[in-house]
Design brief:
CATH superfamily: Phosphatidylinositol (PI) phosphodiesterase
Number of helices: 11
Strand content: 15-25%
Structural class: alpha/beta
CATH class: Alpha Beta
Strand order of the largest sheet: 6-5-4-7-8-9
Number of strands: 14
Number of domains: 1
């Protein structure tokens, strides 16, 4: 029996347990029950905002913290019912709620690009939809929100031609920022002025190298470990990319598991616990201090549960920390 077949069989048998509290939470500190947002420290409040705050306009793209969702496309809402979701709402709602970094797993199936569960062979069980749907939602948001900069992370090995075809069909190519290794990142205001407000990272080097608009993720990003089964495993260690890269990505989510086997899904209770300010902000600030670099992305499950946006505001100097 192949390792892949065994993985598929075990996951299929156990995925429903993902919602039963698998994945452990270690009590670092008591959670804060009531958090009152502090007054902002935005000294440029009269300016037109960038990503919601005028204080961010003069900051370079790689100096800003952005709220991100893990497996953004796997949601359980309306007619779309992903089995073992990571989010409650679709990409369109995530963007409206303030999320500014979206992640998609993409494969080619029957001649079309699809977003899928993440394990090939389980698409018909756990869910699948065309890539055009989330791309269209991103395009609509960018068209309606001219002062917002969005980042898209794509996990895929499909060809650049196929990927760029779908990005173009969605109306996104004209928004895509091209970054040269020898150049400084532009400020958010410069990206808004040029209307190049979408940064697209792809984690397959061959795909990225074939199109200037596709940036190879691990040339630019350093990330903490993705597969974490307990909050005791959270760290600031770089697991992918290099410490000297321009952007720092904090994976802040716990995979549901049973008997040490990851179910590659999320658990709401675990997400609610680790998304609290008292758990998220000390870790983010600690990693920021350790790496002497802004934590550019904090990626979570069930973003609406907890204090992701407040943590981002504190890192960006928009709010003061109540801790």
């Amino acid at each position: 029996m192949s390792k892949h077949f065994l993985s598929v069989a075990i996951t299929f048998a156990l995925f429903s347990l993902a919602q039963l509290g698998c994945g452990t939470i270690d009590q670092w500190e008591p959670a804060i029950d009531h958090l009152t947002p502090t007054d902002t420290v935005d000294t440029n409040a009269s300016r037109t905002p960038c990503n919601g705050h005028s204080a961010l306009c003069d900051k370079k793209y790689n100096e800003v913290a952005y709220p991100a969702t893990n497996r953004s496309y796997r949601y359980n809402f309306g007619v779309t019912q992903w089995q073992a979701p990571n989010q409650d709402f679709p990409v369109s709602r995530q963007l409206r709620d303030g999320i500014r970094a979206i992640s998609l797993d993409v494969e080619e199936k029957d001649g079309k690009l699809q977003v899928y569960f993440g394990i090939s062979g389980l698409e018909g069980i756990f869910g699948i939809e065309t890539l055009s749907k989330p791309l269209g939602e991103i395009a609509t948001f960018l068209a309606d929100s001219s002062r917002e900069v969005v980042t898209l992370f794509i996990h895929t090995s499909v060809s650049a031609t196929a990927l760029m075809t779908d990005l173009d069909a969605a109306g996104l190519v004209d928004y895509m920022h091209v970054q040269q290794p020898s150049d400084d990142w532009p400020t958010l205001q410069q990206m808004i002025d040029s209307n190049k407000r979408l940064v697209v990272f792809v984690d397959d080097q061959n795909t990225a190298n074939a199109a200037d608009e596709l940036l190879y993720t691990w040339q630019w990003v350093a990330a903490t470990p993705f597969e974490v089964l307990s909050s005791s495993e959270f760290s600031c260690a770089t697991d992918r990319g290099n410490d000297g890269n321009d952007l720092y990505f904090l994976e802040h989510h716990i995979s549901a598991s049973i008997f040490g086997f990851s179910l590659q899904s999320a658990n709401k209770d675990s997400a609610s616990a680790v998304n609290q300010l008292s758990r998220m902000y000390p870790r983010a600030q600690g990693c920021k201090d350790a790496h002497q670099h802004q934590v550019n992305f904090i990626s979570v499950d069930y973003y609406q549960s907890g204090d992701l946006l407040q943590t981002i505001n504190i890192l960006n100097g928009i709010e003061e920390s109540p801790l």
